[in-house]
Specification:
By secondary structure, the chain is an alpha/beta fold. The protein has a single domain, classed as 3-Layer(aba) Sandwich (Rossmann fold), CATH 3.40.50. Helices cover 22% and strands 34% of the residues. It has three helices and nine strands, in the order E-H-E-H-E-E-E-H-E-E-E-E. It has a six-stranded mixed β-sheet, sandwiched between helices. A hairpin with a 5-residue loop joins strand 3 and strand 4.
Length: 178
């Protein structure tokens, strides 16, 4: 287990649990999109490990792209609202089926914004898959189409999720900072 001197980690979801759930999600998504091409848009940074494992178990043609929302800052310095979206390259999503991949859906505000933007760009459909769903923190009426685990822990790291200092994204499991 890795942690900085100031951090103690409590394992919450094991590597085996994650891999089992990713395979289950892959089967479900493959069944739902059978016969269709899908553009997978991964929201950086938290989704990169989940994306890598998920697309390897999907049984359909996929195009992988990355997006990174840019946020305005509130008075307290916390992220307020999405002001811009950066794409790895400008995708032509008109008429395409989009699977938005998140590492964690928290308030739902960013995810809702991204879904609306993708629909406005002419996507045939937009669905969301998230590894972690923190419904207790939801500020908008959003339900991911697919989710790995419901969580309530304040802050999780590992499997692509990082703390403020970006440490521990490399852990193959998820842990709570205590």
């Amino acid at each position: 287990m890795q942690a900085t001197a100031a951090q103690t980690l409590r394992p919450v979801i094991s590597t085996d649990q994650i891999q089992k759930r990713v395979k289950e999600l892959g089967r479900q998504i493959s069944d739902d999109y059978k016969g269709k091409h899908v553009q997978v848009l991964a929201v950086l940074e938290n989704s990169f490990m989940f994306l890598a494992d998920l697309v390897r178990v999907l049984d359909m043609p996929v195009v992988c792209q990355f997006i990174k929302p840019k946020y305005s800052r509130g008075q307290s310095g916390s992220a307020n609202e999405v002001t811009e979206i950066f794409f790895s390259h400008e995708p032509d999503i008109r008429g395409q089926h989009i699977l938005l991949v998140e590492g964690l859906v928290h308030s739902g505000v960013t995810t809702e914004f991204l879904m609306s933007d993708l629909r406005a760009r002419g996507a045939a459909s937009v669905k969301v898959v998230t590894l972690l769903d923190r419904q207790s923190a939801r500020r908008v009426a959003l339900q991911p189409d697919y989710f790995g685990f419901l969580v309530d822990d304040k802050f999780l790291v590992g499997y692509g999720l990082g703390a403020v200092d970006q440490v521990n994204r490399n852990l193959p499991y998820l842990a709570a900072l205590i």
